[in-house]
Amino acid sequence: MKFNFIKYTTAIVITSLILVSCSKKDNDSEPLGPDFSGTYMQKDQMGRPAVNTVFVSANKKDEFNVTVPSQQNAKFQSMFETNLKGLSPAFANPGDKNALGQDAAAFTGLLATDVLNVSLDGKTTFFDGVAANTLSGRALADDVITVELILIFGGEDGLTNSENPTLSDDNVSANDKDFLTSFPYLASPW
């Protein structure tokens, strides 16, 4: 019995010493939050879905992705305009405009600064048919890709069935699951 007591006590003491020696020293402190001390590099910029993908030429992707938004318009608007005119017959003629009433230069000037705007005092929507509400934020249920297709290919009336109807709608009219009515609002995964 005395021998078992000594074995158990020895085992506990050795285990305690091992655990104590494996812990951090008293002068080491745990970080209170994430550690951002490393070197980080931005790899992709996507303020508005698909804009970077569609309008930035392949040889300029890396440059665009590391350019701060305040400098994007000056550096990339003419490339955006060239690519828009090459893609969209809705801007084939001088003076052609989109549903926002913008010609190719004005529209690509808006798009070249790839940020998601947010209206602090108005309606938050990607597009609801009212030009003043366009790109004023993004609600979860906004059909962003169809809106972009309408603004690129849809012509001046903003309808998916006027100019270029096969190019003006992604034909996805709703999320596959209803959004939640409280935080985190996103639908649960499958």
Please characterize this protein's 3D structure.
It is a single chain. The protein is mainly α. It has a domain at 51-167. Helix content is 37%, strand content 0%. The chain has six helices and no strands. It is globular. The N and C termini lie far apart (59 Å). The mean pLDDT is 80.
Concise account of the structure shown:
By secondary structure, the protein is mainly alpha-helical. The chain contains six helices and no strands.
Fold blueprint:
Blueprint: H1 2-22, H2 51-55, H3 61-66, H4 69-87, H5 104-112, H6 144-153
Secondary-structure element order, N to C: HHHHHH
User: What oligomeric state do the depicted chains represent?
Assistant: single chain
The overall average pLDDT, rounded, is: 80
Helix content: 25-40%
Cα gyration radius (Å): 28 Å
Q: How would the global form be characterised? A: globular
Q: What portion of residues belong to β-strands?
A: under 5%
Separation of termini?
59 Å
Number of helices: 6
Unreliable spans: none
- The overall strand count is 0
**What structural class results from the helix and strand content?**
mainly alpha
Main sheet makeup: none
